[in-house]
Amino acid sequence: MAPSDSALCWEGLSLDIAGRSILRDIHLSVAPGETLALVGESGSGKTLCCMAALGLLPDAASLTSGRILGLGQCWASSDPDAALTAIPRGDRITMVFQEPMTSLNPTMRCGNQLVEVIQRHRHLDRDQATARAQSLLEEVQMPDVGRAFSAYPHGLSGGQKQRVLIAMALANDPDILLADEPTTALDSTLRAELLDLLGTLQRQRGLAMVLVSHDMDVVERHADRVAVLYRGDVVEQGPTRDILDAPQHAYTRGLLACRVPQSGRPTPLPVLSDFLDGQAGAATSNELHPPGKDAPVLLQVQGATKTYPGASAPALNGVSLQLPEGGSLGIVGGSGCGKTTLARAILGLHSLDAGTIQLAGQPVHDRTPSQLAHIQRHVGLVFQDPRAALNPALKVGRVLSEVLVRWGTPKADAWKRAAELLKSVGLPETALDKRPDAFSGGQRQRIVIARALAADPKILLCDEAVAALDVSVQAQVLNLLVELQASRGLSLLFISHDLGVVRYLCDRTVVMDAGQVIEEGNSDAIWSTPKHPVTRRLQAAGGGSIA
Amino acid sequence: MSRFGRGLAVVWGSFTLVFLMFTAVPDPARQLAGQQADPSVIADLRAQFGLDLPVHERYFNLLSGLSPLGPTEAGWGWRWPSLGRSYVRPEGVGELLLDAFPATLLLAGTAMLMALLLGIPLGLMAARKPGSAWDRILVGGSVLGMSAPSFFMAVLIGYLFAVRWGHWTGLPLTGSLWDLGANGERVLAWRNLLLPTLTLGMRPLAVLAQLTRGAALEVLEAPHVRTARAFGAGPSEVIWRHVFRNAMNPVLTSASGWLAQLLAGAVFVEFVFGWRGLGFLLFDALEQQDLPVVMGGVMLVSLVFVLVNGLTDRAYRWLDPRAAEA
Amino acid sequence: MLALLLCASGCASQPEAGLDLFTYNASDGIRSLDPAKATDLETMWVVDQLYEGLLELDTALRVVPALAEDWSISEDGLVYRFRLRDAHFHDGTPVKAQDVVASFERLQDPAEALPGRWVLGGLAAEGAEAIGDDSLELRLTAPNPVFASLLATPQASVLRGGGRDADPDREDLGTGPFLLRGWLPETALVMHANPTYWMVDEAGQPLPHLDGVRVEFNREEGAEMLGFQQGRYDFVSAPGPQWLDLFFDEHQQWRPQWQGRFDAHVTAYLKTDYIGWMVDSAGLSAIGRSPIHPDVRRALSMALDRESLVRELRAGGARPAAGFVPPGMPGFSVSERPVLESVRHDPEAARGLLAQHGIGAEVPLQRLSGWTLGTKPATADLAAALQHAWAEFGVDIEIDVAPSAIDAERVAKGQVPTFRKSWLADYPDAENFLGLFDSARWAPNGPNYTHYSDPVADSLLSAAARAMPGPDRVSILREMERHVMQSMPVIPLWHDEVLHLVAHEWSGWRISPINRLDLRHVRRRPLHE
């Protein structure tokens, strides 16, 4: 469309940071009332496009060509002599960021932060601004507006914080709203809610919205037009339906293909490299091989109950499950359902008020030193955030050797065995000498998995192991997990909020809510016919429209 | 152990430690008796101060003197804890401390105030434009300020302002809070506060400015600052509303540590400028082996540290509501 | 901003209007105003202004009347009778004999533990008796030729009511030329002229001439000297060597920039700095040493070039030792007591003496080593100079520096074989110096730190104690000094000088070898002088 019709327009924009080319010849535009999705993986430059529109680029960034037009004015230009209009941040153009946990000032009450934004751009006195703030919080469907207003950020949940940020974004009736992966850090049930909310608000106010995401399912649900970015280039753009039904570019096709399917189990999942390199790997298998009925029970939890001191309701309330040797069990639920508590109890990090946990024939719920050692020997742990899980100062080889030596490998052999471990997760031996920051997120997660395997455990406990990864990387890691399970006879305990991923990976699923097991059984059965309303919500959130 | 109990233990510990140290050092009786040092006079002096009693008895006597419950003129009852009399000076220890401490309090407080009022804004302003000329001046200046030893700075500042430029400034090289007028009346001598404050406050100023700058730079990278910017906050607003309080944590820690240190009596500065505060008093008492004064002074200093730490904790909670729940 | 503040303060400061106070600095501070506790010079100087006793010393060190208008001694020398003049304490109450008696009884009282108690050692218990309000008698246990000069010490001052029912540490209970107006310990002390003071000058003018005196307590000598140069202080005493260099050239003349601004008042000081050697074998073996032959000590004394030591270490503010008793002492002037052989600089003789005992710097003589000299930090430079000087003669000494109080304690307890000390006259009699060799006063029970003991010396000392003041007595004391110095338990080094630098605008300065501060005659010099 013509630039004058659009609310925000990137015209041939190229951006360098510290001399390196980050964005190349970006042509994008958004019209009022329209939602443009920017799709790409980490490093594609989609966030930087938004930051450029806001004028909040780092000092080392420079525009090498093109310009940005907003509301008909020239907001940024590579031409040093161009006449620029000041970008009306917080007023006409606002942004909702990705990490609600840290995007609010921890030392200011949420209400005050909202009021501050209102007062900055409007001539309202304190009472008027407060009233407006409260009505905004109602609009974003904040439960208990009064409490949220006077609470500090750490007193609100992630979802509630994001609502506050959305309220701030809409406070001054902007024309343009940039939403950078606004729900990625939240669990799946919330995602749908918040994205629907955003959509509603957008329609009501006729906003031009830019929605940044790495997830095609989100895009499908909420965007009118899609632009796909790959490494700083717009490789494809057009109406959503067109892009999704008939992707032209290999990257787009790859992105669409490596999503977790809703039925069947192609193994391995397609990965991006298959598409970009032009080889389509053939799925070799489509079935799970669950263990037989007489397989010994590796992990048995009976009636686990725990209430945190000072809490009104129990975090775990009579939870029972079992994991047979060679099997895979998924534990699914929304945030606060108790799955994390359960995981910690299994790991011996929490005591139980009642109930038992048996691991490889031994009780471990008493948490004596020998029991704890038993747990560590048999359970390998993979966390959600690979950045936080590895000590940035230590070389990878050292990280792995430490664990190996701890579990009996003689020092002389440790390095060699570490190399073998890396090989089994698909990383080369040269990785031993590098530090974690030399690797991408997906590679780091592999290192974490390698470390988990170092003790040669029987169970691999994955706590939201793929939640923070791009969809293509997620596919790779899932492939790895499947392969490890097959080659080492590992049993898998997979904790997630994503029912779809769990369905793909695990033969049995346990659904939890409010500390109780509300549904369990064969994964496919649960997926196709969820009985409990919570399960149905999870399935709706995870199937077809994961966010 | 509760905080109160811990504080009490610290104070008692310092009391005992000083007492033990003094058992290894000759008492001042011989010095007091002078050149002629008549042995009977020395013995009588010792008896007067109870120095001829065995060690544990002396310790117990001192300790019981501190108790608020004990023998008074009217039998057993409540009374002011007594630290005893100085061996060397006619005043009681309590009297000496009460005289000296306010002077140190004033000096330390003023110096700290100066350091905070100047240091924090300077640091914040430098963080606004890192790498600018102003920033470089600040960093360089604060490195100099931090490295210069206090004794050296005291002498240098004294020389410059009181000697070299003494005509214009009218400042004396030495002087304490109180002075005597021509008729022997006590007068407040505020002028004397300037140079010691300048000297004493210089190092905390430099450190706080640097710390503030560093902390502010770090906070400037935080997501909530990005949010504020994204919502149109200008650079000043960002610094003052969104960076300031969040950056104060390390600064406050440092400031409280400095305050406690300054309150303990900056001996060099007090000595060079003749500022009769706690540090000066302690220094003097040590030279004279005046045990009761040293003990009283050290106990007061430990008490100060305990209180300042307690207050700092309170301040943390005010500054950062997250800490309140921790 | 800071600069503005400083300038503003400068503009705000006004010079003191009204009273003209004579100002000086007492860098060691004073701890108490009680005359009986005055053991150091600066305290005694303040006591000199606030208090006086029955008698005092004039600049020639003769005993003259003070509060006692006249006095007499009985034939047997045991009873002293005084008639008091018409004088008043600073609060207006008249001075009565009962006050004197009470003051002396307090001084003698063991319960008071007063450092000045020794001054009345010769007074019998309850030997002070008031006769009416204006006369009193003092009864001694034995005739004492120095008793009168002891009454002239600051410790023998008269306090109102004897100091009972008052706090002599902090209150002004005296009759002296100045009265206390205010005292801020460690900061300043202000005294105003006593309007009812009894003394008048030659022209009949009441003394003192000054309006008042202000004493400050700046610790640092540097600040004091600076204050003196800037006119903040009117007088400084005995500046250290570096300051002497600043003020005077090598010929002891004022440097041009100071000419006419200050006056220097000098006289010999009754003080001796010396190196003491423990000479009793039992004491020495208790610390693991064996005695050194007196010849060796003698040789070490003669090995010293005292002129150059004085020049290097004292910048000329002292005179090389003539003997143990300083030449300023009556009867020991240079003509009456020529410089002793053993303190002359004679390196040849020294070497010879040492060689006789097999000690020397070159083979086949052996070096003498393993001997320790104890000192406090302030005099460590002297110790180093001695070490250097004696090393050339083949005698190696080790230096052991300890903080002042510890050094004093260990010398008193006989824990160091050799030490540096000084003796300052309490009263102007040679017996005060020679008492250091009294075998009955071995340290720690007296000042005989060397543990010298000789029956001949003892008998000479008691003969002097029995003799009446006069030339015969003095020659007994001279003989005693000669005898003692033959075995050289001490090596005298030098005698300090009393040096007062006073701003030129003040005249009437009095100075005496006993170094008391007499400000009674000081006045501003009329402008035409």
Task: Explain what you see.
- The complex is a heterotrimer of chains A (547), B (326) and C (529).
- With 547 residues, chain A is α/β, with parallel strands linked by helices.
- Helices cover 36% and strands 24% of the residues of chain A.
- Chain A has helices at residues 46-54, 110-121, 126-139, 145-150, 158-170, 188-205, 216-222, 240-245, 250-257, 272-276, 339-346, 369-378, 386-389, 396-406, 411-424, 441-453, 471-488, 499-505, 523-528, 533-542, and strands at 8-17, 20-30, 35-39, 61-70, 73-77, 93-96, 176-180, 208-213, 225-230, 233-239, 297-306, 316-324, 328-332, 354-359, 362-363, 379-382, 459-463, 491-496, 508-513, 516-522.
- In chain A, helix 16 packs parallel to helix 17.
- Chain A starts with 7 loop residues before the first strand and ends in a 5-residue tail after the last helix.
- With 326 residues, chain B is mainly α.
- Helix content of chain B is 72%, strand content 4%.
- Chain B has 15 helices and 4 strands.
- Chain B has helices spanning 3-23, 29-33, 39-48, 55-66, 93-128, 133-147, 150-164, 166-169, 191-220, 223-230, 235-263, 267-273, 278-287, 291-319, 321-325, and strands spanning 69-72, 75-78, 178-180, 186-188.
- Chain B has a two-stranded antiparallel ribbon with strand order 1-2.
- The two termini of chain B are 18 Å apart.
- The model of chain B has no long low-confidence stretch (mean pLDDT 83).
- The radius of gyration of chain C is 25 Å and the shape is globular.
- Chain C starts with a helix and ends in a 5-residue tail after the last strand.
- Chains in contact: A-B, B-C.
- Chains B and C meet through helix 2, helix 3, helix 8, strand 3 and helix 9 of B and helix 1, strand 8, strand 9, helix 5 and helix 12 of C.
Please compute the radius of gyration of chain C using only Cα atoms: 25 Å
Helix content percent band of chain A: 25-40%
Q: Please report the number of helical segments of chain A.
A: 20
> Which chain pair shows the most residues in contact?
B-C, 56 and 66 residues
Number of helices of chain C: 15
Mean pLDDT of chain A, to the nearest integer, reads 85
Largest sheet of chain C: 8 strands, mixed
List the uncertain runs of chain C: 7-16
Specify the helix fraction band of chain C. Answer: 25-40%
Biggest sheet, spatial arrangement of strands of chain A: 6-7-8-3-9-10
Shape of chain C: globular
Q: Please report the distance between the alpha carbons of the first and last residues of chain A.
A: 29 Å
Structural class of chain C: alpha+beta
